[in-house]
From TrEMBL:
Keyword Hydrolase recorded: yes
Domain of life: Bacteria
Keywords: Hydrolase, Membrane, Transmembrane, Transmembrane helix
Membrane is among the record's keywords: yes
UniProt GO molecular function: hydrolase activity
Protein name: Class E sortase
Active-site residues, as the UniProt record annotates them: 128 (proton donor/acceptor), 196 (acyl-thioester intermediate)
Annotated transmembrane regions: 6-26
Signal sequence region: none
Length: 238
């Protein structure tokens, strides 16, 4: 009798574990995708997005990039990010804050103490890798030269991926204005992506760095590589 009861308890425990894994790896992604779509819709409501054009505008030098002020509170979605390496339709919101109320629902979170898009220094973001939308699941597939685009109400910021490193969770100097060099005077405009490593664990952190290559105001329309997805995303949300 005792053996039978123990067996039933083990079976029940096994089912609970399986259901938890299904919820963690499947349902959280569905729910996060829904919430991120809602955040993108709200974001684009405040944007003036030019209509999609099949012709690319001639490249121009628009001077120093415009920089938005930091959001006043966590939970404010202020930008969208496009990473073509992750797929031709990749578009995700960027929201202020890195607490679970942001990362578990709204995708990429902005470290409040770091810079803003286009600013000299370090614009640092965090995101989950295998759950809650899997926003940085493919971060390890980036190769030097890949472009990462950030869109705000001011315009489009084009960053070029440079390199990555794997660090321990306590190595927070990757968030410094000059990553890994606290106190150094920044000269570059850097984008830093942080996520867990390995894919199904959290013993380490995977850090990816990109450097600003160019920017263009909203009136110029999206850069050519993301023109279709950016315009389609804006139209869909609108």
């Amino acid at each position: 009798m005792a053996v039978q009861v123990l067996g039933e308890l083990l079976i029940t425990a096994g089912l609970v574990i399986v259901l938890f894994v299904v919820w963690e790896l499947w349902w959280t992604n569905i729910e996060s995708d829904r919430l991120q779509d809602a955040a993108m819709e709200e974001l684009f409501d405040g944007f003036e997005v030019p209509p999609m054009s099949s012709e690319a505008p001639p490249p121009e030098d628009y001077g120093d990039p415009a920089v938005l002020p930091s959001p006043e509170s966590d939970g404010t979605t202020f930008a969208a990010i496009y990473i073509p390496r992750f797929g031709p339709d990749h578009a995700r919101p960027i929201t202020e804050g890195i607490g679970p109320e942001v990362l578990d629902t709204l995708g990429l979170g902005h470290y409040p103490e770091t810079g803003m898009p286009g600013e000299i220094g370090n614009f640092a973001l965090a995101g989950h890798r295998q759950t809650h939308g899997q926003v940085l699941d493919a971060v390890d597939t980036l190769v030097p030269g890949d472009r990462i685009y950030v869109q705000t109400a001011e315009g489009y910021y084009t960053y070029v991926y440079r390199n990555s490193q794997i660090v321990l969770p306590e190595q927070v100097d990757v968030l410094a204005a000059v990553p890994t060099q606290p106190g150094a005077e920044p000269q570059e405009r850097i984008l830093t992506l942080t996520t867990c490593n390995p894919r199904f664990g959290s013993q380490e952190r995977f850090i990816a760095y990109a450097v600003l290559d160019s920017w263009q105001p909203a009136a110029a329309g999206p850069p050519e590589e993301i023109r279709t997805v950016a315009s389609a995303t804006a139209s869909r949300q609108g």
